[in-house]
């Protein structure tokens, strides 16, 4: 197999994805600096595209890479880690033949249109489920999640793939998204999925993940809904003005990525749904923008929903940038910024909207205890102040809504972060840590970094060396023991 070589003209971050990630079995981790906090007992899981080529051919988009899971177990005896690819049927078939066999988000069927249609007519998956976007930790299993298909179930300790997971009622044609939200008080898990017919599926599961309630809401056209927000008794959706060349996708002549067209003359639609009944509370519209991720949302004392998210000017630029990331060289500028919105859930009308952070950022997160409820701090991955537009995220930020200030941890030159996660302190519920996986482009290695949640300007309290380079992941989660 031929991997895409790193070119000296590329930025240092490109080395992290220049070759497929190599699996490793459970391995004790050495401490580079500091010490593991006593209250850190549980497991960090992260999911992302571990390999971006097969048989000398490269993927069409960063979203096409095979999913690989990193698990970092923190126990009283120390930390250990394991890294494994999700053994989907598509991954196994392509590994056996050492070539791409299926269409994906940024790829048409490499075996041609007729093979695509043969798969459709024989009721096989027309797209490979890459299982590469996020993870959901349940009491007895870990789910590897993808945008447009069913989850895959993995062993919580070894990350061995058990198979496709139905959660009690998912049918093969039902998508289950990569951004479920867990209510910290009830333990209920909400998730969504959008199918090719333009139907929005909404699911409510119990603590074990078993689906107890679901509905389907018909939407106009075929919207792109990557994530949503939970705000008290409401589920909030922003539907950007995108249109899909559906016929080209169904004929197999265009990939999903190439078929999505940005229509700025249209407007972003707002959909508010009751979390208990799944009834549509209101629909509205506002100016056009695109978003991948929300930070958090809540209902305030005046009845308005407060919500923050990372806003992009349009879809085309951010989609092209993410396509370029997989090549190791980016030329498209697509900077997202943190915005705050207040809207009336009864009418879906925006009352106020403002940019709160004029810095290129992504992956906003809050403390898991704050999901759907009032919060003060939003954490994000940031570009360093001195970085150019072709750089990857090299800093972690915390925006304080009470003081209106940003605190940040600049990781240093050629040091790159993925989505930061807030990890609660098991010994003190009022405190926690910010944990991330860092790629050291100076020494070509990956580490786990742990910061005190309110001391980002100080050095990490612990750095752990991983056995190999972990290609950049998308999303992760924490499971306490």
Radius of gyration: 21 Å
Helix tally?
5
Helical content, roughly?
A: under 10%
**CATH class category label:** Mainly Beta
Using DSSP, what is the number of strands? 35
Helical/strand content category = mainly beta
The unreliable regions are: none
- What is the CATH fold-level name? Methylamine Dehydrogenase, Chain H
Number of domain modules: 1
Task: Report the CATH architecture.
Answer: 7 Propeller
Shape: globular
Mean pLDDT: 94
CATH superfamily: YVTN repeat-like/Quinoprotein amine dehydrogenase
Question: Span from first to last CA?
Answer: 40 Å
- Report the biggest beta sheet as strand number plus sense, adding barrel if it closes: 6 strands, antiparallel
Beta-strand share of residues: 35-45%
Topology:
Blueprint: E1 24-28, E2 30-34, E3 42-51, E4 53-54, E5 57-58, E6 66-75, E7 78-85, H1 89-97, H2 113-121, E8 134-137, E9 142-145, E10 152-154, E11 161-164, E12 181-182, E13 189-194, E14 199-205, E15 211-218, E16 229-231, E17 234-239, E18 242-244, H3 246-251, H4 256-259, E19 260-262, E20 268-274, E21 280-286, E22 290-299, E23 305-312, H5 315-325, E24 337-344, E25 349-357, E26 361-365, E27 377-382, E28 395-400, E29 405-410, E30 415-417, E31 421-425, E32 428-440, E33 445-452, E34 462-465, E35 475-480
Antiparallel strand pairs: 1-7, 2-34, 3-6, 3-35, 4-5, 6-7, 8-9, 9-10, 10-11, 12-13, 13-14, 14-15, 16-17, 17-20, 18-19, 20-21, 22-23, 23-24, 24-25, 26-27, 27-28, 28-29, 30-32, 31-32, 32-33, 33-34
